[in-house]
Design brief:
Protein name: NifU family protein
Largest sheet: 5 strands, antiparallel
Radius of gyration: 18 Å
Strand content: 25-35%
Pfam family, one: NifU
Family: Belongs to the NifU family.
Order of helices and strands: EEEEHEEHEHHEEHE
Number of strands: 10
Domain Scaffold protein Nfu/NifU N-terminal: 14-101
Helix content: 25-40%
Length: 210
């Protein structure tokens, strides 16, 4: 049986922080849930098979999406309930669950995520495209991801082909009204400036059209 990854059983403090997506709330903990740079995004209960914590959160009928990163959980709601009504309940649940040492993941997602990103950068592509892909990954990791995490989400590299960069936006960024603007005015401009081969950036995980 795989060893379950649990957070340390210690006093936990949690505060809620609004995100650019009005339907998503970021719950920041004073303990580490995942390694830095690793995150998971669960759009539904079925996708959360590897996370007992996420499965428990989906038991709340208003929880529609769960995103877990290094020291925070971003929850996207599905109902018209106001966050003022939901935050106390979710904060109490998270605090009790983590303090009790409840399992966060069944299998550590870090290795799988690193392997997937490496495969995307070095798959069936030319050597030149591999080099360009690595430059893009480095820029996303060093300049873009920290800012996106501040807003309760994450960005991961998916592919590069003929000047088109495809990324995946997760957590609060998924379905966020401002995600398209951020993608085009911020991320695309940065990559075009730093990597001349880049012509356009498109994203998966965003419901708005570009």
């Amino acid at each position: 049986m795989a060893e379950q990854l649990t957070a340390p059983a210690a006093p936990v403090s949690i505060y809620a922080e609004a995100s650019p997506n009005p339907e998503s709330m970021k719950f920041v903990l004073n303990t580490q849930l995942l390694a830095d740079g690793v995150s998971v995004d669960y759009p539904n209960l079925e996708a959360a098979a590897n996370s007992p914590l996420a499965q428990e959160l989906f038991n709340f009928d208003y929880v529609g999406r769960v995103f877990i990163a290094q020291n925070f959980v971003t929850i996207t709601k599905t109902t018209e309930h106001q966050w003022a009504q939901l935050i106390p309940e979710l904060r109490t649940f998270l605090k009790s669950y983590v303090e009790a040492g409840g399992p966060i993941f069944t299998v550590d997602p870090a290795a799988e995520q690193r392997a997937a990103q490496q495969a995307a950068a070095t798959g069936d592509v030319s050597e030149a495209d591999q080099q360009t892909s690595q430059k893009i990954i480095d820029l996303l990791d060093n300049y873009v991801r920290p800012a996106v995490e501040q807003d309760g989400g994450n960005i991961t590299f998916k592919s590069y082909h003929e000047g088109i960069v495809t990324v995946n936006l997760q957590g609060s960024c998924s379905g966020c009204p401002s995600a398209t603007v951020t993608l085009k005015s911020g991320i695309e401009n940065l990559l075009k400036r730093m990597v001349p081969e880049v012509k356009e950036v498109v994203a998966e995980g965003v419901t708005a059209s570009f």
